[in-house]
Amino acid sequence: MSNANWPLWEVFIRSKQGLSHKHVGSLRAADAQMAVENARDVYTRRSEGISIWVVQSNDVFASDPSEADSLYEPADSKVYRHPTFYDVPDGISHM
Amino acid sequence: MKENNIEELERQFQEKIDNDIKIEPRDWMPDAYRDTLIRQISQHAHSEIVGMLPEGNWITRAPNLRRKAVLLAKVQDEAGHGLYLYSAAETLGADREETIDDLHSGKAKYSSIFNYPTLSWADMGAIGWLVDGAAIMNQVPLCRCSYGPYARAMVRVCKEESFHQRQGFEIMSTLANGTPEQKAMAQDALNRFWWPALMMFGPNDAESKHTEQSMRWKIKRQTNDELRQQFVDITVPQAEMIGLTVPDADLKFNTETGHYESGEINWDEFWQVVKGNGPCNKDRVDARRKAKENGMWVREAAAAHAEKRANRSKEKRA
Ligand SMILES: [Fe+2]
Ligand SMILES: [Fe+2]
């Protein structure tokens, strides 16, 4: 048996309290516990984090980049969702 | 897929690259782009891993505890660099196990610099200063590479590399300012590593068959000769500063261009080492193979432990 049987894990690190976990890379490990330990060794050698999430890469379901146009077009056409769409008369503040 | 369809996809792909839009793993890409990246990234990963061997050779013989801790941390960083890069290659569909087998069978290449032996403690200085210095010069432009995961790995690597070069230069300058014997040791290390370090940038542009396409794809952002020139221009004054002599009788500063002109690299030696006939090629690959074999029981035990733990938590839930 070799590494080939170890699943791939995606690693997410919270760099400090108050910030969300951010994807930093991936690694192979036999199980979740080992994935966390390996992530500690390779992704936090310079105090980059205070909390680690690992997720098996197989469990990530991703959107299809070739469908990006149809997925995101509805948002692109709704410019009125941004505050810059509106005219605010001169002299009005705190808005 | 129809032919004109592929042409259209290729046109869109090149348009993205020209507009500096990064390519991500699930985006369409030409097969040749994928293959080029897999080859380059896995070679790069192998270089990080094999690169641990010449320095690992001196960890137990470092002259004091500070130097030992620093060297250990540096070599550990290189292991991390290997991991980031193998992971980046995996995002392109490369199989991790196969990639490593290719290194062990001699099919895959790694940087030829690591096929030179480390004969004295001063070599730790020369490697950090020159070899990591040259690697940084190569890697900084790769932070802007068109392939997202490779570029992101390079950003991490470059951040970590900066102490590698400094610790090497510190070793060199300490020796160069020490006893006459220590200074001679530093000079000897520079003599042996200078030319192989220049070779790290690869063949001259005219001989480099992949450069043009790689530049068009923004996998490469500067040519071999441009990077080599930058390295010489930066490094020669550093050697002078610590009183060491660069072993190149033809080296001279051109006041008109503002650049150093160097002597001819021994390309015969370069190709010999690339083809496997360098002083340590066999040792390096043997050491990697042995490490894999000797680590087998650890990997087996970890897998068995993971299985046991999984079963136990299943029982608990039942
Ligand atoms: Fe490195
Ligand atoms: Fe390094």
From TrEMBL, chain A:
Keyword set includes Oxidoreductase: yes
Q: Which Pfam families match?
A: PaaB
Indicate yes or no for the key word Transmembrane helix.
no
One of the record's GO molecular function terms? phenylacetyl-CoA 1,2-epoxidase activity
Enzyme Commission (EC) number: 1.14.13.149
Q: Which Gene3D superfamilies match?
A: Phenylacetic acid degradation B (3.10.20.520)
Q: What is the superkingdom listed in this entry's lineage? A: Bacteria
UniProt xrefs under InterPro entries = PaaB, PaaB_sf
Using the record for this protein, list the coiled-coil segments as residue ranges, or answer none: none
Q: Which UniProt keywords apply?
A: Oxidoreductase
* Family annotation (NCBIfam families): PA_CoA_Oxy2
What name is this protein filed under? 1,2-phenylacetyl-CoA epoxidase subunit B
The record's gene field reads paaB
